[in-house]
């Protein structure tokens, strides 16, 4: 599959439209959900002749995908090879299925991502994310590295001792890891006199948590990691529904969109495309997916996009970091913000290591935000002052037993920490 990232923007758009139109025809013909929806709304594929006509097509919500899950399957069941589920950050996990072509597409996407970063066949990569538990990303990384021909060490998630033993034994060049887990690895190394600063690791491909701010600088979490461990950090962004990963190049100026694998829109509340640099909701149409193709799927993720060419010479659009989920927007004492704004303040404050943020409604229907910190934390007044100076509002701060905080953060069966709890 040819990579069109270095073509001029008009050529990129022309190729993308051809692929979008082919995908639209496939969806209209093969997807039970969309076939019925198009009939109900009298939608004709022949009326959609350019990207300017996209408003004639409906937006697909997470609720529809959850409610009519099996109706999105567009291939015979016997063709399905892999079953996965979403992480369920905003509700119950959604099932997803992939056939052989979908797995090849995943491999191609991650192959390009690793090449974009600069990983070579001669390199070794340690994957510290799970390849089981119905998790798409771990398998995608494995398939992409296999296509690249790089060496793979599959340690899976957790177990810092195993991670360091594997690094010592196999000398990998790169890690695939959740940023907060890198901090746990550093803490384990410090506690066990491991000379981690002189290990073979030179960079980490970071998943699952924002790593940069809206100006593409490392956020508090990223700064905390690099202050302790001088390795290069690469930001990525992906989800099961998108079946696509967006990865930043060594210029670290946004996550590149693989335009022949996915079509992206960043829309305002009225459903119009925002201007470059403005915040909107990411809406995606994965291209080339076969088992569960989605059309104009609303991710709920709020971010910015940039159209100008990158310093790496690629001409594809780039996405800024996710600043929050649309459903998680908080209105606190007249100030609109997202959980990530609170997380940034907490990660930058050196005295807070463990916390959970909880949003609820008071008896008048107004947003209330509580931050739970360990009982050993005794700088609540200072932390309130920091919140006031950074985001102009002060959430409630309460102490809890550390075990209770960890239980809230990692509920049974969860694949990743649930730092923000939305009870509204």
TrEMBL record:
It holds the Pfam family AMP-binding. One of its GO terms (molecular function) is ligase activity. Residues 39-284 form the AMP-dependent synthetase/ligase domain. InterPro entries: AMP-dep_synth/lig_dom, ANL_N_sf. Keywords: Ligase. The keyword rRNA-binding does not apply. It comes from the Bacteria. PANTHER family: BLR5969 PROTEIN. This is Phenylacetate--CoA ligase. It comes from Christiangramia sabulilitoris.
């Amino acid at each position: 599959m040819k990579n069109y990232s270095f073509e001029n923007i008009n050529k990129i758009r022309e190729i993308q439209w051809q692929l979008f139109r082919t995908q639209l025809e496939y969806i209209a013909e093969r997807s039970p959900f969309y076939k019925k929806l198009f009939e109900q709304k009298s939608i004709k594929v022949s009326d959609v002749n350019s990207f300017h006509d996209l408003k004639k097509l409906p937006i697909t919500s997470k609720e529809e995908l959850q409610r009519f899950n099996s109706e999105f399957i567009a291939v015979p069941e016997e063709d399905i090879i892999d079953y996965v589920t979403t992480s369920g950050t905003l509700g119950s996990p959604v099932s997803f299925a992939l056939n052989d072509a979908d797995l090849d597409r995943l491999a191609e996407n991650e192959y390009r991502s690793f090449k974009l970063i600069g990983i070579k066949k001669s390199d070794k990569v340690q994957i510290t994310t799970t390849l089981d538990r119905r998790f798409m990303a771990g398998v995608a990384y494995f398939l992409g590295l296999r296509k690249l021909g790089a060496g793979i060490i599959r340690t899976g998630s957790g177990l810092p001792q195993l991670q360091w033993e594997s690094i010592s034994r196999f000398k990998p060049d790169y890690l695939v890891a959740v940023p907060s887990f890198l901090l746990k690895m550093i803490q384990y190394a410090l506690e066990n006199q491991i000379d981690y600063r002189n290990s073979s690791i030179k960079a980490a491909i970071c998943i699952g948590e924002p790593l940069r701010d809206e100006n593409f600088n490392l956020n508090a979490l990223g700064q905390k990691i690099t202050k302790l461990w001088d390795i290069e950090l690469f930001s990525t962004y992906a989800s099961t529904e998108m079946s696509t990963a967006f990865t930043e190049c060594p210029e670290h100026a946004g996550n590149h969109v693989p335009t022949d694998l996915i079509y992206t829109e960043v829309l305002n509340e009225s459903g119009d495309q925002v201007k470059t640099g403005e915040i909107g909701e990411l809406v995606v149409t994965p291209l080339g997916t076969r088992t569960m193709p989605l059309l104009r799927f609303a991710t709920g993720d709020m971010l910015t996009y940039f159209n100008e060419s990158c310093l790496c010479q690629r001409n594809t659009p780039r996405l800024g970091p996710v600043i929050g989920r649309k459903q998680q927007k908080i209105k606190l004492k007249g100030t609109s913000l997202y959980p990530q704004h609170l997380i940034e303040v907490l990660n930058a404050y050196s005295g807070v290591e463990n916390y959970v943020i909880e949003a609820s409604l008071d008896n008048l229907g107004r947003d209330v935000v509580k931050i739970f910190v360990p009982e050993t934390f005794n700088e609540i007044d200072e932390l309130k002052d920091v919140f006031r100076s950074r985001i102009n509002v002060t959430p409630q701060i309460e102490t809890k037993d550390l075990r209770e905080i960890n239980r809230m953060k990692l509920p049974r069966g969860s694949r990743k920490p649930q730092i923000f709890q939305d009870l509204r």
